[in-house]
Amino acid sequence: MRKLLAYIIATVALCACQSTTYKVEGTIEGAQEGDTVFLGYSNDGQDFKTTAKTTIKDGKFVFGGDLEGCKIYYIGYEEGEEPIYAMFFLEPGNIDAEITYTGSHITGTPTNDLNIKLEEDLEKFVVEMLQYQDTLYRDSTLTDEKKAELSNNCYTVQRKAMTYIQKIIRENMDNMIGMFMLVQYSDLFDNNELSSLIAAVPSTLIDRDNNYLYDILLQIQEERNNPGTLDEIINAIEEEEGNDFELDGNEQESNIVE
Question: Are 149 and 234 found together in one domain?
Answer without folding.
Answer: yes
